[in-house]
Every structure is written in C-alpha cells, then in structure tokens.
Amino acid sequence: MRVPFKMKASFKWKLVRILFTTVWLFGGWLLYTGSFEPVSLGLGVVASFLVAIATYDLFIAEHEAAKKGLLVRIHYGILYLLYLLAQMYLSSFAVLFNILRGNINPRIVHFRTRLHSDLARALLATSITLTPGTIAIDLQEDHLIVHWLDAKTTHSKYAGTLIKGKMETLLSRVFL
Amino acid sequence: MIELLVYLFLFLALVFNLMGLIGILLFPDPYTRLQASSTCSTTAVVSVFIAVMIDAGLSAITGKVFVITLFFFVSSPVGAHIIAHYAWNMGIVPWRKLRKSRPEDSSHG
Q1: Strand, helix or coil for residue B89
Q2: How many C-beta atoms surround the C-beta of residue B23 within 10 A?
Q3: Which end of chain A has fewer CB within 10 Å, C or N?
Q4: How many domains does one find in chain B?
Q5: Could you say which of A34, A129, A149 has the minimum Cβ distance to residue B81?
Q6: Does any domain span residue B61?
Q7: Residue range of the domain that includes B34
Q8: What stretches of A7-126 adopt beta strand conformation (E)?
Q9: What is the pLDDT of residue B109?
Q10: CB nearest B39 (choices: A85, A95, A100)
Q11: Are the beta carbons of B35 and A147 separated by less than 8 Å?
C-alpha cells in the first residue's frame, strides 16, 4: 500500500504565503507593463515568483498566515474606499470651518477596537488619521489613542462610535 | 461637462491647501498644527488625483494614478502618525481650550 504524501503544516503555509505574494506582485506587474504578450507575461511570473521567495516573510508575517485575513472581499473593499473618500471630504469641510472661525476644542480620547487581525487594525488607525480632524497617536493591541481636533465628548465608548463611524463595521466585512 | 468636474476638483484642492496653510499659522500647538497641515493637504492632493483620473478617462494611466492614490492613502497618514507619536513620546502636552469662568465663580475669589 502506498503511504499518502503528507506535507508538514509549516511547509504548507510557507507555500501559501509565497503563492499569495506572487499573485499580488503579478497584479502590479500587469498594471505597470500594460501588455498581454506571452513573453511579458512569462517574465512577469518568473520575476514575481523570485521576488516572492525573497520577501514573503515581510509581506505576510508567520502568525498572520493561518488566519483568513489574507482574503479580501473586493466589493466591500471598494465600498470601504468610497465611504472613506466621502468621510474625508465631509470632515475636511468641518475642519475648514473650524479654521475659519478659529474655534477648536482639541482633546485626547482613548477607545478600543473589536477588529482582530493586525492588518485590519492598522488600516483602521490609518483611516482615522486620514480623515481630517483626527490623528491616531498610538495603537497598542486593541487600544487606540486619538487626538481629536473638535471634540464633542471625552466619553470613551461614545467617542469611539463617533470617530470610527461605520468604518469598523465595513472593515470587519472586508476581511473574511 | 467633464472639464467642469476637473476644474471643480482642482478648485477644491486649491481651497483645502490654502486653508491648511492658514491653519498652520493660526493654531497653537504641534498637534493641532499637524492636524491642519496633514489633513487638509491630504484632501487637496487626493482632489488633484481625482481630477487627473477624471481627465484621463478609462485608460492605463487611470489605473496607475489609482495605485499611486492607494500608496498615498498609506504613506501620508503614516507620516502624520509618526510625527504625532514622537511628540506624544517626548511628553509634549496637547493644548486645551480654557473654560470660560462664570461671573458667580469669580466672586468667590
């Protein structure tokens, strides 16, 4: 009887990480070369595979590999980008009026997030900094410290819902 | 029509950039100045990118500008965050608005 071929778990995840990195890099290659000739495609696959072998460890950390956070729901991603853009313009106008009237009430607020993967948390902090009027100063595990230009409240939970808005819900749907 | 949209976004970029500069001059402490400069100029640059994307229409250039926008979405907040984080670790105390004292409070001395 033949013994079925079994891979070690760590080796399997290594392959998955290399494959994911290759796919992302090849997407970038396609976008920037902009041609579908066979030579170009073949070169792209080889080049992105070589780069993936060298850099998969930086691209996807080992403790993140087994989580499903690598897969992205693209339609929710696009929805998230549009929501972020709208939010950016809205709060930009708010900051604009704050500057014009010279009426600001800056405060430091602390709150928590319920996102789990590192990438999602980092994205949430980045989005908070990207929307005008709030800057994420620190992110420790799930604890965020935010500088708020025109603070409505200092209550932790209420400030969290006001600042995060729908971003947290949408982000938790973007990552499977 | 499309040209009008392009001009609208370029005008928005101008307004936000100007307001960011005025904010830097007016605001009292590092954190609030950082707010004014980074956030308003972020919106200004994104407006310019949107104008370019509308002007280019559906072509390879739009895709490239879109990728550049995504990079900018990551790099600009990270820069602002690093400055704010450094100021926080240095122990710079954020400026706070003083509460107006009421007349009945001042009578107590």
Answers
A1: helix
A2: 26
A3: N
A4: 1
A5: A129
A6: yes
A7: 2-92
A8: 107-112
A9: 42
A10: A95
A11: yes
